[in-house]
Amino acid sequence: MKDGVKETIDDKGRLVHLRKSPIGTIIETYYIGRDCEGPIKHEDGKEYIDVDGQRRYWGGIIDPLPDDQRIRLLNEFTVFIIKPDGMKMEIGKAVSHLIKRSGGNVVAEHDFVYNDVMIRKMYPHFFAKEWEQDLFDYLKSGVSRCFLVRGKHPHRNMFLLRNAIRHLFGCNKDPRVKSLVHCAQRQSDAIKQALLFFSLEELLTLVGLKKSKQ
């Protein structure tokens, strides 16, 4: 602990800084996320953060990774998803081709429709109310397609491909949640997201385990 501040994971799985008084009482819980950061405040049993004068309320669900040692041995892979607007534009074949052109190897694909719990696990964020409603309406509006992608540097290469696809096919920025495609940018995110669509045993079989060094 430094200057009365302790970094920890709270009971909802979020990275936070706890600021404590000299006698150990928690004075402030400061959230640190990729979506935003700031002190967590409370209103009528709900948690929120002020971001530039806008209240964003916690709406995420963060599940811990399965307690299975094999998780750490999974080959590097990522999750690449065509969202409903991309599916309606029928870009599936083009995306599959571009994944291969970018050095990716599709080991599985799965069509699905988001439900509320899946969205909250995919996007464990603090949401402005209007943005949250836009996101839910959009993601539940039609079929999406999930690809499991292996290959060299899959997170970096598929992130670059994500941006290229948005540029190539045009990205509807109004509302800003509509963005054609998504990809997981870290192995831990890829695992959690893949487990929304595949069982652990299926994932282990599809992605494979790293070969032990002799």
Automatic annotation (TrEMBL):
Family assignment from sequence similarity: Belongs to the NDK family.
Species of provenance: Candidatus Zambryskibacteria bacterium CG10_big_fil_rev_8_21_14_0_10_42_12
Domain of life: Bacteria
Protein name: Nucleoside diphosphate kinase-like domain-containing protein
